[in-house]
Amino acid sequence: HQHSMSMDGSTSFGSASSGVSGRHGADAKKAISDAKLAELALVDPKRAKRIMANRQSAARSKERKMRYIAELERKVQCLQTEATTLSAQLSLLQVSYWALP
């Protein structure tokens, strides 16, 4: 299932013939510009409100994802440091073990 949100968090809609680069067939949708959204608000305020709410939700989701990725990267760094420390400790213990009479 493909979402109809662009990378900048805007919601896209339109007919299949209004293709956007990289999309084909039924998934070819065009993002609505802010100017067109303002026009749409005059004709269909409920739809315009829903589109804006979707954009805001997408932006929040993108921000959550970025924070999650940053936290995972921090955890990876901590685990790599811990693995290096434990490896050094293991080496020392192995040397001590083999030095026992």
Automatic annotation (TrEMBL):
Ranges where the record places region Disordered: 1-28
Superkingdom: Eukaryota
InterPro entries referenced in this protein's UniProt entry, alphabetically: bZIP (IPR004827), bZIP_RF2 (IPR044759), bZIP_sf (IPR046347)
Coiled coil: 62-89
Residues covered by the BZIP domain: 44-94
Entry similarity comment: Belongs to the bZIP family.
Protein name: BZIP domain-containing protein
Organism: Aegilops tauschii subsp. strangulata (Goatgrass)
Lineage of the species this protein comes from: Eukaryota, Viridiplantae, Streptophyta, Embryophyta, Tracheophyta
